[in-house]
Amino acid sequence: MFGIGAGVSFFVNYSHKNLPVQSSPAISTPVPAGTEYASVRELAEQMSRPGGFTSEGLVTYLQERIRTLDPQLRSVIELNPQALETARALDQERANGQVRGPLHGIPILLKDTIETQGMQTSAGAFALVGAPAGKNAPLVDYLISQGAIVLAKTNMTELAGFRGTPDGWSSRGGQTRNPHHPDADVGGSSSGSAAAVAAGLAPLAVGAETNGSIIVPAALNGVVGLKPSVGLLDRDGIIPASQHQDTPGPMARSVFDVALMLNAMSARKSHDSASVEVDYTKLLVPDALKGKRIGYPVTFTANGEVQALENSAQFSKTLEVLEAQGAVLVPINLRIADASGYEKLLLSDVKEELNGYLAKRTGLPVKSLTELIKFNEDRDGKDTDHQPDLKKINDSTLDPASRETAWNELIQDFRSTVDEPIKTHTLDAIVSDFDTNSYFGVAVAGYPGITVPSGTTEDGLPTAAHFFGTRLSEPTLLAVAHGYEQAAQAATKPEL
């Protein structure tokens, strides 16, 4: 265990038996078993009624759950040593009649790419462990201003998958496990955020995505994950990969809680934001699906050839639920855009933006991608190529002017694959089986998508439906996803 900054600790080997036990005054009302799976509204109701438990009690309860379960899951990489103190202050505010909003006193988790004052922001990499972040990312300040409590930072695929290591593994945090089965795919790169929410370690988490990093782990761990339109949420203070695709996003166990988070996360505008004042819970009402025109792919076109899609039994059931709730299902053809130049463009973006971030970030062992690669070689040796993607990124030679022109053409092509069927068939949204990997094209387009649990496989692992649409269609997507979720009731709890 190393001491970093004034009174701040982090754990190199992440040994839970060494986690500091913070003292707290006696809590009059114990937090009952099962509270770990309560919704935000249920938690707020408990904390607001006479005789209910406090936020301090809830934080204590979840900290103990982390200490008990997470040595196996390895979803949490660092506890916030100020969480209990913050909870006490928020309890006092509530007692004084001051409630900041629906997230008042609610614990949240943050992916380890999001700068958090007094805590490490390392993307799971030892090379980025040093002086704690000097301030919060604006997104974190927005959440705190609404009363949310940063409970911990979450483990992730190291460097958001750009080191070239297995999903959910980082040198700092180890291998995150899927709480539904330790050998199941956990997804990446927001692995810890999804696994921890699924395991009841916190009700809410913030993930971040370039391509699939929210949607994939949310689907595989059986929780709800929203990847917003690129630019909707503030990205300052988040370790970057590509300005063309990066976005933070909320993860929770229900669509309503995701919408509450999105309200808090978009509370203030920034130069990066395309948002307007929207209450993302407004359309989450009974009969939200009635009359909604929802497209679903029955064929796809790739390289000019039309091929049929065979629905899984699980996805066929999803369509049945949607239709039973009054949705108008429209079969569509989904064109697959040409992604042949995508990897080259993305890796070139990562090289420029990661180098720029490291150069500006103070107190870290490395200041550039070249130094990062050398750090890893010095620490882990050169006998095995344990950072193939980092080396490919560092070898990129694409010039910025050529890259921007190519990006614009690529993004427009990918956007048209979503826009065309929506316009042609006057659709409110499109739904697909998560297993079709539709999230890839949605991410390249910079468009929003949300994954919702749809049941389980024969092996008991979560399945998911993926709803997506055109730019800034989040209110409609949330409404459709909520309507499906409430009718399907398909989410399952892991047998930990």
Secondary structure topology:
Layout: E1 2-4, E2 8-10, H1 40-48, H2 55-73, E3 76-79, H3 83-95, E4 107-111, H4 138-145, E5 149-154, E6 169-170, E7 174-175, H5 191-198, E8 204-209, H6 215-221, E9 224-227, E10 247-252, H7 255-265, E11 293-302, E12 305-308, H8 313-324, E13 328-335, H9 342-360, H10 369-380, H11 388-394, H12 400-424, E14 429-433, H13 439-445, E15 449-456, E16 462-468, H14 474-488
Parallel strand pairs: 4-5, 4-8, 11-13, 11-14
Antiparallel strand pairs: 1-2, 3-5, 6-7, 8-10, 9-10, 9-15, 11-12, 14-16, 15-16
Helix pairs in contact: 2-3, 9-12, 12-13
Question: How is this structure best summarized?
Answer:
InterPro entries: Amidase_dom (IPR023631), AS_sf (IPR036928). This is Amidase. This protein is α+β, with helices and mostly antiparallel strands.
